[in-house]
Specification:
Helix content is 39%, strand content 12%. By secondary structure, it is α/β, with parallel strands linked by helices. Bound molecules: adenosine-5'-triphosphate and magnesium ion.
Length: 320
Amino acid sequence: MAVGITVAANKGGVGKTLITLNLTGALRKSFPNARILVVDTDAQGNTTKSFRVKLKNDQNTIYDVFMGTATVEEAIVTTYDNQIDVLPANADNNYLEFDKMEVFRDTILEWFISLIKKFKDNISELMTLEGLKKKMNKNIDPSSNYFNALEGAFDKVEHDYDFIIFDTPPELKQVTSSVLSIADVVLVPYEPDLNGVDGVTHLISRVNTLKDKYNPSLRIGGVLANKVYNTNLHAKMINAMMKYTNRNNYHYFDSEIPRSITFADKLVRNGMPITMSAPENKFSQNFYKLLNEMNQLGLLSKDGNVLEIPNQLYNDKEEE
Ligand SMILES: Nc1ncnc2c1ncn2[C@@H]1O[C@H](COP(=O)(O)OP(=O)(O)OP(=O)(O)O)[C@@H](O)[C@H]1O
Ligand SMILES: [Mg+2]
């Protein structure tokens, strides 16, 4: 049974995609027999492009899954000699909320016509907003599953995978909320700058609201610093974040990802994250360390168990 892991932040550019890609690569190398699915939910399609998924004109994407016009199985494509499956995203997802609104509008108008036909002799029953709301059922109420629009969508494939990793767009609206409403674990990346701490507290508060409403078993895996640079500002911000996580009982990852231009340049080579193409690389090792830390916290399994890592590629001597 797959564990669903997502990386979420409402701020752009904090490294959601970079972490998704490299964590996926590290999982691939560490668990050679695991079945892995990466789900891109960002209209920018950066994860899709990084894995060199070429979208044909009729290729179903996460947009179709959200719209209900394709199942998850129908949208999955396989890369790397069947090593990693990808559920792609493209710019269609930019129009998702508008397109859904159009579908809902037509559904509601059809419903309204049928209602008027049915109640034509007693139309006063329909003349108040409350009266109408009572007659509405869940299927045609656009607000009923707005923030958990993916509910049930992955149920069929959950047994086909060990890890399902979701990359999300920089927002907390329908798309990211819907992922948080079905995931098991969320990682919260931040850049230790002036606004980084605010962004994390806002995100965690939103996660907790969604958890209470839709997904009680969602675990906040921890807060992860990215683009860390050796400056006073970063040290100060990291300190502030550690205090916040401590006070609120959230995990602060000991693993952190340094800022590195060389690393950013090499991030994806030949459609492979650097953790896959060069696991021993100093920068890749940060992700192998993260993977180990996640495992120790039970975040790599649905039921919170610590797994045995068949191919241990983290070399902790690097640290010294
Ligand atoms: N540790 C790092 N060192 C250097 N560059 C980095 C690092 N992490 C991310 N970057 C660079 O910063 C940019 C943003 O990273 P990324 O796309 O992963 O962020 P994101 O949160 O997914 O952004 P978006 O919100 O737009 O989806 C990219 O150009 C990436 O290569
Ligand atoms: Mg991204």
